[in-house]
Amino acid sequence: MSQNPNRKQVRVWVDGCFDMMHHGHANALRQAKAMGDFLVVGVHSDEEIEKHKGPTVMKEEERYTAVEACKWADLVVKDAPYFTSLEVMEKYNCDFCVHGDDITTLSDGTDCYQAVKDAGKYRECKRTQGISTTELVGRMLLMTRDHHKRRSSIASINNEDLTSFSSNIKHNPEIKISHCLPTSKKIVQFSEGREPEPGDKVVYVDGTFDLFHVGHIEFLKRAKSLGNYLLVGIHDDQTVNAIKGVNFPLMNLHERVLSVLACRYVDEVILGAPYSVDENVLSKVYKVDIVAHGNTPSFPDVNGKDPYELPKALGIYVEIENPSAEITTDGIINRIIEHRKMYEERQARKNEKAKLEEERLNQK
Ligand code: CTP
Asked: Which segments constitute the Cytidyltransferase-like domain (predicted)?
């Protein structure tokens, strides 16, 4: 259906912290974008968040980059105020503001959206159940300093590790663990994929993409620039556990898929891609022209072979300089473990707030 060219563009405002940007945040942006034509996303600074909510895990520049990489965000406003004023909405010419159906307050208890609510410029989207920054931090706080015991090869698949991770979770009643159950509808909503067109250069990359972060984003951006269609293979939970050991992955396959699909550089994903890049990967989904990988060594496959042996032999393997040694999944976990006390206090405050919110909803 063609749109009336004279129709005024509807501009939507969303704001938030977007700490450890996850698929719940992305889903809020997706829903908000669907309510209009152009999505402006205000992201609060570290200082503003510290004042009203507590410390963040990701620094403001990392959070800005994560939101910019989300395919539904058209414009990111850095250092947006924690209290959403009519002035800020007017400055960016926004018609209304969208927020998830939970209450967000200033440190003194004032509703952050009172002004836009009073002006009739407030709309709600459905909050995604089973995922939050608090839950992600909780998963990491269960880890100890030796969390990154790695294996020498994928051969040592051991389901006991995953089981012990979940029993660990059961033993820690303080921490709410993800009950994220992504449906096929959610995956369809996130994919909005296009097929490669004749002449398109298809680039393939694969990996875990756990706790999707700016390191992944920069890597995918660089990979996409090698061609014009980016296919991403995501390894399943057992494979990741076999390679990375004890507590990994922190996010299950479907959560990891949703985060990757929300990234603007990605065109399509393979759910549960094989660890070694084989003929099927190179030809069955699309004809792959380039296989790219970061310049860090990869673990050998079960048979002891290099997982990139085939693309290397075919001369289609390209190495990409890894964007940053600091921003890795391990690096993020270390930030939390090193500041354990601070994050545990933050968790306690968040859990208390969640309890009050639950009581409020039960009274409705
Ligand atoms: N949001 C959502 N679903 C989630 C988490 C967040 O829809 N599971 C929405 C929020 O309602 C808000 C936007 O994402 O509209 C930005 O949220 P943010 O300010 O980062 O705060 P939180 O709601 O506290 O997010 P989290 O609980 O993950 O820290």
From this structure: 14-137, 204-296
